[in-house]
Amino acid sequence: MFRCWLLIGVTGFGGVLPVVVHELVTRRRWITHEEFSEVLAVCQILPGPNIVNISVIFGMRIAGWAGAMACLGGLLLLPVIIALTLAIIYSGVADVPAVQRATGTIASAAAGLLIAVALRLFWPQRGNPIAWGIGALVIALVIGFRVPLIWVILGCAPLSIGLYLWKARTHV
Amino acid sequence: MSDQLIDLLGQMVIQSLLAIGGINVILGELQRVLVVENGWLTAQEFTSLFALAQASPGPNTLFVTLIGWRLFGIGGGLAATAVFVAPSIIIGAIVARAWTRWSETRWFVVLRRGLVPMTVGLVVSSAILLTLAAASGPISWVITAAAAALSLTTRLPPVAILAIAAVVGVAGLG
Q1: Cβ–Cβ under 8 Å, residues B29 and B15
Q2: Which of these three, A40, A71, A93, is where a domain ends?
Q3: Which residues in chain B are contacts of A47 at CB distance < 8 A?
Q4: Where are the domains of chain B?
Q5: For B58-72, how does the pLDDT look when each residue is reduced to its tens digit (9 = 90+)?
Q6: pLDDT per residue over A95-139, tens digit each?
Q7: Do B148 and A118 meet the contact criterion of CB atoms below 8 Å apart?
Q8: Do the domain assignments include residue A98?
Q9: Do A49 and B126 touch (CB under 8 A)?
């Protein structure tokens, strides 16, 4: 299991999830598609990085604490080493103009990738007025007023859930 | 440990607990805390570290490793990563033990669907803030737009898109 997650860690560039599905479900059949969807759904409402939650819950269900630590350790070990190595190399050459330019363009592209993620999340909600309203409110609070996230969540989460319940009720 | 290190590690625990729906949700908040509020990093450093984390293989969590590294060296990077994933380990362990097919219960469905509009708003906010932070001229806007378009319309993996951007930068167009 450790080896499998080691592989997942190094091969997942900018989003590990597709690799996880491929390794655990398709190739090794350690977990069925239904079970995996369920784990993923639960992890999406748990705090913390989703992929860390998935690796811990998966490892725990299969082999208890040792399993959880093996999966998480495998997931993080090599990427942490690689990222730190890259960062150290980067700090040595950060003053080279070409490197500075490349960092700038990579940062712009990374922002573009995040925009794509945001649009993909938003697209299924485009016909939902609640998503427009809550989305606009959250953006105004976060960007316009720079309200600390904890207040945004404490304020908007109940509102978001309340509106969903209200809409579900009026439509039934 | 210095006070700043304790502050940083404390922040990482809080951020981890706020990241409902993944690390993309808290990018805006990280920027607010690290750059605007405390001035620990410049906006430029913040976006450079984010770019480095994206260009490395592995989970986005690495961004936190690099923030710790930038401020306190390798030990800081490892410590920041450890405290950032610690809450997830504890929560994951509890959930795995108490597993009772949650996804079929009504309150779970309500929670999951009800939270989507907020998550969307938070990820969009993160995307806007990062775009603004990375913007240094007209070319950077073009690169951001092109990367988003490539990601949405082609099957290119993210690392390929970042590699193209790097080549554009080295060639001196950025």
Answers
A1: yes
A2: A93
A3: 16-20, 87-88, 91
A4: 3-111
A5: 888 899 999 999 999
A6: 888 888 888 899 999 999 889 988 988 888 899 999 999 999 999
A7: no
A8: no
A9: no
